[in-house]
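TICKET: design request
STATUS: open
ATTACHED STRUCTURE:
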């Protein structure tokens, strides 16, 4: 089995794809930026005047979506996300230790603990070989229009109320 060279390995956090000198120069400049903006990269490329570098945003977007470049960009975006999370946790730690408001301290500590746990729910793996479960159809209840006040006016097919004959003071009750 051939190893996939587009994804980072356990030994190296970076993709192991060989790059051309131009791609390497553009990626090096991309990695020096504080964000992953292609507009900022285009401006930096214009300032550095790298030969044969993309000169329009369209060309740079095509370059960034190339199959051999995409893993490098995703790696950089992951690094930026991790750095941002570290900054947020540091700020929350400062709030937790220096805020005079105890409610804010508890909120900060709660967020720090939640962030340290990682995702709370893992997505269920998709397996196209397993049959999809469909909800069982519910049967609609039979509408009852029986009136407790008027038991003789029941229209339910399953509800049978014994019909009683009215009794008069002079007649004996039915048996």
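STATUS: resolved
RESOLUTION: sequence designed for all positions
ATTACHED SEQUENCE:
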């Amino acid at each position: 089995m051939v190893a996939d060279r587009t994804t980072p390995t356990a030994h190296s956090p970076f993709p192991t794809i060989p790059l051309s000198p131009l791609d390497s120069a553009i990626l090096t400049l991309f990695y020096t930026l504080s964000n992953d903006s292609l507009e900022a990269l285009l401006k930096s490329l214009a300032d550095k005047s790298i030969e044969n570098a993309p000169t329009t945003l369209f060309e740079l977007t095509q370059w960034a979506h190339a199959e051999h470049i995409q893993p490098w960009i995703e790696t950089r975006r992951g690094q930026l996300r991790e750095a941002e999370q570290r900054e947020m946790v540091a700020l929350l730690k400062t709030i937790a230790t220096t805020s005079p408001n105890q409610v804010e301290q508890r909120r900060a500590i709660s967020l720090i603990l939640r962030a340290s746990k990682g995702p709370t729910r893992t997505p269920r793996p998709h397996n196209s070989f397993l049959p999809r479960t469909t909800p069982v159809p519910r049967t609609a209840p039979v509408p009852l229009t029986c009136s407790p006040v008027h038991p003789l006016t029941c229209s339910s097919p399953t509800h049978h109320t014994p019909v009683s004959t009215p009794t008069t003071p002079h007649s004996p009750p039915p048996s």
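CLOSING REMARK: The chain has a mean pLDDT of 74. The chain has five helices and no strands.
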